[in-house]
Write a structure and sequence with these properties.
This protein is mainly beta and about 375 residues long. It has six helices and 20 strands. It has a five-stranded mixed β-barrel with strand order 1-2-3-5-4.
Length: about 375
């Protein structure tokens, strides 16, 4: 779950942990924790001190499909908002049904969350309807996440805190970002004891950027840099990952001060360079595939994670009638010969072996008949 996708219960569960008092003498805005004793007639009944009970509108604790997310016997946390006909009324947040105008001041003074519907975009922010009242939410306070299109929030219900209450409720300023930031900070404090560098964790891919992918890790967004996705060169993240995909990754760094967690998939893959010294031999011919063309040479992938370089001078030595780069394209099969190796520096120098069809039947690591399984041939098939 990403930071801007909280369910009704998760929004406030951690925030309601603060300053619990006895229920013997309740004050408006007081936070209590109580057991659900029954669910009936659209209400949730909670056990207070002694034999008294409190009630909560069951609509507050339903998911997007209208299903209750709590059961009898569970403990929940709620705010006391009023008494009516001897009944004590509680809420997990003030919404359109429970929020009379005279409660807004109490919500402001007691920091009780309120639910509102974003009605329209206005100068500097949004107009938000909270029950029968109108409030203003600045653009910067609508979310802790980057907002690409302000209109996306119009018509949606969000939870806010009242940051200013003036002129008897005629001037109300609210913030949803405050709630998201508080929840995020509490999650970080919890995760500080759970997450450590070099730990293998589970996460879900939530978005792509040019520099990598963001992964949700227990409600916190972590970065998977493009260089840490595979041992092979990654030009298109979409060829390796999908949005919504569940992955196992290794934590390679944590910076709690900057709220930054960096992950790696590459660290969980075998390093092909560890066997390169015995697998590849100076002077031997091998078949590869063109992985990148630069102004100083051609990179040829010998296997996933191992590239060698044909320098421009070596390319021309066996192809004097060609202009460098002509007749080459990424994905093209090529016969090459190793001219030097430095495994410690992860460098292999190559030169092209001119073969009529581009590959050498006498070279290693390419099955020209493709009748038997060959890992490198399988890799080439996948690149077509």
């Amino acid at each position: 779950m990403s930071l801007n996708e909280f369910d009704d219960r998760g929004d406030f569960g951690s925030l309601l942990d603060k300053n619990f008092k006895s229920t013997e003498k309740l004050e408006i805005g007081q936070i209590i924790e109580a057991e659900i004793v029954s669910i009936s007639g659209g209400y949730i009944f909670i056990q207070l001190d002694g034999k008294s009970e409190g009630i909560i509108d069951s609509e507050e604790l339903k998911d997007k499909d209208g299903e209750l997310i709590v059961n009898e016997g569970e403990k929940i946390k709620a705010y006391f908002i009023s008494s009516s006909n001897g009944e004590k009324i509680f809420t997990t947040k003030l919404n359109g049904k429970s929020i009379a105008k005279d409660l807004l001041k109490n919500a402001f003074e007691s920091s009780i969350p309120v639910e509102g519907v974003v009605s329209k975009v206005i100068k500097g922010g949004y107009e938000v309807n909270i029950g029968d009242s109108r409030a203003f939410c600045p653009f910067s306070q609508i979310s802790s996440q980057r907002v690409e299109n302000p209109e996306d929030f119009v018509g949606k219900s969000k939870t806010f805190k009242i940051t200013e209450y003036q002129e008897d409720g005629r001037n109300i300023i609210i913030s949803s970002r405050i709630i998201e930031d508080e929840i995020k900070q509490e999650k970080i404090e919890t995760l500080k004891g759970d997450l450590k560098e070099n730990q293998i964790i589970k996460g879900q891919v939530i978005s792509f950027e040019k520099f990598g992918a963001f992964v949700d890790v227990k409600g916190i967004r972590a970065l998977l840099p493009i260089s840490e996705i595979s041992r092979s060169r990654v030009d298109d993240i979409g060829n390796f990952l999908k949005i919504g995909q569940d992955i196992d990754a290794k934590i390679i760094s944590i910076d709690w001060d900057r709220e930054k967690i960096t992950l790696s998939l590459k660290e969980l893959l075998d390093d092909p360079w560890e066997s390169a010294k015995t697998k590849y031999i100076d002077g031997e011919r091998y078949n590869g595939v063109v992985s990148r063309i630069t102004n100083f040479g051609v990179f040829v992938e010998l296997e996933s994670g191992i590239d060698g370089l044909i320098h421009t001078s070596d390319y021309k030595s066996d192809a004097r009638d060609r202009v460098f780069g002509d007749n080459l394209k990424v994905g093209q099969k090529l016969a090459v010969q190793i001219t030097s190796m430095d495994v410690s520096s992860r460098r292999i120098s190559l030169k092209e072996v001119v073969i009529a069809e581009g590959i050498d039947s006498n070279s290693k690591y390419f099955d020209t008949n493709e009748e038997t399984y060959n890992p490198f041939a399988a890799l080439l098939k996948g690149k077509k």
